[in-house]
Amino acid sequence: MADITRRLGWRHLRGAPTAHIRHHRSGTLVHDGPGLSFWFRSLTAALSEVPVDDRELAMTFHARTADFQDVAVQATVTYRVSDPAVAAARLDFSIDPDTGAWRGAPLEQLGTLLTETAQQHALDVLARTPLAEALVDGVTSVRERVAAGLSAEPRLPATGIEIVAVRVVALRPEPEVERALRTPAREQIQQEADRATYERRAVAVERERTIAENELASKIELARREEQLVDQRGTNARREAEENAAADKVRAEAEATRTVRLARAEAEAAREVGEARAEAQAAWLRVHAEVDVTTLHALTGTRLAENLPRIDSLTVSPDVLTGLLAKLGASE
């Protein structure tokens, strides 16, 4: 929409770079071009504003396939006004000189023209295409047919319209038909998922069996090694007992030999001591046999005196002394 301001009966229009402005004054074209800015009088001016930028037109329509199935087509057409003068002459792009707003609805007229033309070509293609084929290749075929049909449509160049691009966003059947079509695919996907699950379980069972076999083999190997260990321990214990017994036997024999030798030495010593004592006693007897009685008595007293205990002090009471004196007197 053009920007119009008022100043003392005059109007000033300032257009956008993407809007083509045509100004007629009293039937004469005064200004013609995009992005114009000028003063004018509203009573003598006839203004039109034609957008020259690329515009997107979204459209949705229903069609029927060769097997009588309804489908919904969603498409987008990009177009531009390539000849603003022709467009302004064919469609009402006039604007109010006071507000700058369009007096009519030219873009709606263009949208209707493009939608009906595109729908006509899309219906022609889908009417000869079965639903299954349309769902697989319908988007491409519909896009190509609509683009070719719009490019060949004579009404568009006559209106100053140029088609930039055509896109078909989606082509979908009715919800019930779509659910019915999805069922085999879902079942196949479910079967694939079930098969993958079974294969995964089978692999897991096989792995568990392998693990169990490995554990069993490990236990068997461990038991075999424990058996070997027990046998080795028994052999070692038996060998140790034999060695201990042999060592005890050697020690016992050595002890017995030592005891026998010691006994023999003790016996020999005792015999020699006895013989020495006997010889000493015999010599003592021979010596005493040759000595007189008085000498023997003296020797006996001496020996007795040697064996008496030591007397540090002697106390003689009058009674003892009287008895001793009486015995001495009696002996005399």
Q: Could you describe the 3D structure shown?
A:
The chain has 332 residues and is of the alpha+beta class. The chain is built from 7 helices and 9 strands. A 3-stranded antiparallel sheet has the order 1-2-5, with no helix packed on it. Strands 4-3-6 form a 3-stranded antiparallel sheet, with helices on one face. A 3-stranded antiparallel sheet has the order 7-8-9. Strand 3 and strand 4 form a beta hairpin. Helix 2 crosses helix 3. The mean pLDDT is 85.
Low-confidence stretches: none
State the separation between the terminal residues, measured CA to CA: 190 Å
Task: Return the average pLDDT rounded to an integer.
Answer: 85
Question: Nearest-angstrom radius of gyration?
Answer: 73 Å
Tell me, briefly, the overall form: rod-shaped
- Tell me the number of strands: 9
Quick structural gist:
By secondary structure, the protein is of the alpha+beta class.
Highlighted features:
single chain; three-stranded antiparallel sheet
SSE topology sketch:
Elements: E1 3-7, E2 10-14, E3 19-25, E4 28-34, E5 37-40, E6 45-51, E7 55-64, E8 70-81, H1 84-90, H2 106-126, H3 131-152, H4 155-158, E9 161-173, H5 175-289, H6 293-307, H7 318-331
Helix pairs in contact: 2-3
